[in-house]
Specification:
By secondary structure, this protein is of the alpha/beta class. Among the domains are: 1-52, no CATH class; 93-233 and 278-413, Alpha-Beta Barrel (TIM Barrel). It has helices at residues 40-47, 130-146, 156-159, 175-187, 200-205, 207-213, 240-248, 260-268, 285-298, 312-324, 344-349, 354-370, 387-396, 408-426, 431-434, 440-443, 447-454, 463-485, 504-510, 520-528, and strands at 62-63, 75-77, 107-109, 115-117, 121-126, 149-152, 164-165, 171-173, 194-198, 219-223, 234-237, 252-254, 274-277, 302-307, 329-333, 338-339, 377-381, 401-406, 499-501. The strands form 6 sheets. An 8-stranded parallel beta barrel has the order 5-6-9-10-14-15-17-18, surrounded by 8 helices. The protein has a 3-stranded antiparallel β-sheet with strand order 11-13-12, covered by helices on one side. The protein has a two-stranded antiparallel sheet with strand order 1-16. It binds iron/sulfur cluster. The site of iron/sulfur cluster has 12 residues, from helix 1.
């Protein structure tokens, strides 16, 4: 069985000429000499490396479409006809007390300085890609008013064209980073937090010193990797001057903008973009421990770690080192995840898919716990978008997994809400929106709730933030329903017993009992009594 077909697709805006295609190669079964396109090879004949990336750059996010042998759809959630775990102390379980809106979805992560969240989800890292920059205000305010964590991704200071960089190549001021932090702060209400990510270049630029000392950021996230790719963050640059400036700042820029050949190709219009890449990390125990210590000395209240879909060896390092360093949260991002810009074939073909990665994480955390070691709070990311994903991820990784990171799923409502604002201004609402009305009050189901809470200030909320809030509300209520059905009235009572595996392979990978085995002993005891 073929799990993914190469050589054409929506992501690269390509198609096969023929109706029948060889599954493994993606080439048309009859490739005609004289074909006028439009597969990836046809396009790469002219545009070469441009075909590595989803397009149009800056206007999209992309997610891999490989159909992995096992994923979370291979689990179902158990339901029970009696009981209610986790009701507030003193409340007697019964039909009048165990109502689904009474389910508490509040979560907490962290070692010493805890962060509370209204629901155990947080955003993917929005870094220096154009799509992240354009949607920042919407998603940041949305995260603040929804009470969830917001992650500012890598390279924001280094990419800021107005950043002041001193003689030692350290950032002194970054208006873009300041703007990002300040807008989140303005709407922050005690739930959630703003994490700022650091990669190799950010560390060299002294980003941690800047955001902690000058902007009062409390949480720094060390980045080892992400699910969408196994090379560092990338963006496209469509100005020669900017490409040269970023090269001067120390970034890897390809093709080399200093080369007269590439400058000529750019001026002629054949070369349309340069690419800015980050460096590969080289993890090492001693320097990791020293860096965590240094960040704490600088004043970081929390230090978290984000790692990607690397091998089980690196996963074990992440967990063991995080345990030794008392890291506050480890986010583990599996393959199948999304991105603003990653090479398409890499996104599809590299890394351990999320389901398998979580199964490994559970096993390794259990081993740490059995030794009596500190087990850091864990978050799982990579292709997750629904309330049932939240339930399944928390249950499968219980009691270690405390939250779910959603990249694209949380960016979309911010983007859609922002666009509704634009369409309203232009008087060009599409039918899909117009069906609910032609004013903000009519379109957004939660507008009145927010107006009641914020009064006149509701009109200062970016519409993308209202969209974000509405989507998180859907996740929260949906999660309450699933939790009530499985008789869990708080997150801490959710356990692996609340899941069944629908395929024997999923049972073998995850250790979750196969559907025909789950609760069998209890059932037989009842029948034989
Ligand atoms: S060149 Fe044309 S015929 Fe050949 S594989 Fe590509 S789309 Fe098909």
């Amino acid at each position: 069985m073929n799990l993914q077909r190469p050589n054409s697709g929506d992501v690269t805006q390509t198609t096969n000429r023929a109706k029948t295609v060889v599954p493994s190669s993606g080439l048309c079964t009859r490739c005609l000499d004289g074909c006028t396109g439009n597969c990836e090879i046809f396009q790469a004949t002219m545009r070469g490396r441009e075909l590595l990336y989803p397009k149009p750059y800056g206007e999209l996010t992309a997610g891999a479409d490989k159909n992995y042998p096992v994923d979370y759809s291979h689990l179902n959630i158990q339901g029970y006809a009696m009981g209610a775990k986790g009701l507030p102390e003193g409340v007697e379980p019964g039909p009048d007390s165990a109502l689904f809106p009474a389910v508490n979805t509040e979560a907490e992560i962290g070692y010493e300085h805890k962060v509370r969240m209204r629901i155990p989800v947080f955003t993917g890292a929005l870094g220096s890609t154009e799509v992240a920059r354009r949607n920042w205000d919407h998603i940041a305010v949305g995260a603040a008013i929804s009470g969830v964590i917001l992650v500012c991704g890598e390279n924001v200071c280094g990419m800021d064209p107005h950043a002041e960089i001193d003689r030692n190549n350290k950032v002194v001021e970054s208006p873009e980073m300041r703007r990002r932090v300040e807008i989140y702060r303005r709407w922050y209400e005690g739930y959630g937090d703003l994490f700022v990510q650091m990669n190799v270049e950010d560390t060299r630029f002294g980003v941690a010193e800047y955001v902690i000392e000058k902007l009062g950021v409390e949480t720094i996230e060390l980045k080892w990797g992400q699910g969408a790719k196994c090379i560092g963050g990338e963006v496209k640059i469509d100005s020669l001057e900017r490409a040269l400036e970023l090269q001067r700042r120390g970034y890897l820029v390809t093709p080399d903008p200093s080369s007269p050949v590439n400058q000529a190709a750019f001026k002629a219009g054949a070369l349309k973009h340069f690419e800015r890449h980050s460096r590969l990390g080289f993890i090492e125990y001693e320097s990791f421990m020293k860096e965590v210590e240094r960040l704490r000395r600088l004043g970081a209240k929390r230090v978290t770690l984000k790692t990607g879909a690397y091998s089980m060896r690196e996963l074990a390092m992440a967990l063991k080192w995080a345990s030794d360093a008392h890291i506050d949260l480890v986010t583990i991002d599996g393959a199948g995840g999304g991105t603003g810009m990653s090479p398409w074939r890499m996104m599809v073909e590299w890394g351990i898919p999320t389901f398998y990665l979580e199964a490994m994480t559970y096993e390794l955390c259990q081993m740490l716990a059995a030794k009596g070691a500190y087990v850091p709070d864990i978050a799982i990311a990579g292709g997750l978008s629904t309330e049932d994903h939240i339930f399944k991820v928390l249950a499968m990784g219980a009691p270690f997994v405390k939250a779910v990171c959603m990249g694209r799923a949380l960016l979309i409502p911010a983007m859609v809400g922002k666009n509704i604002g634009e369409w309203l201004k232009e008087g060009k609402l599409p039918k899909t929106v117009k069906q609910y009305g032609e004013t903000v009050e009519e379109i957004f189901v939660n507008y009145e709730v927010l107006k009641d809470k914020y009064g006149k200030a509701v009109d200062e909320l970016p519409l993308g933030a209202i969209g974000f809030y509405s989507f998180v509300d859907k996740l929260r209520v949906g999660l309450q329903q699933l939790m009530a059905g499985s008789r869990n009235f708080r997150l801490s009572t959710i356990s692996r017993n609340d899941l069944m595996a629908l395929t024997e392979e999923a049972a073998r990978v995850s250790g979750i009992p196969y559907v025909m085995e789950a609760y069998r002993e209890e059932a037989l005891e009842i029948i034989n009594a």
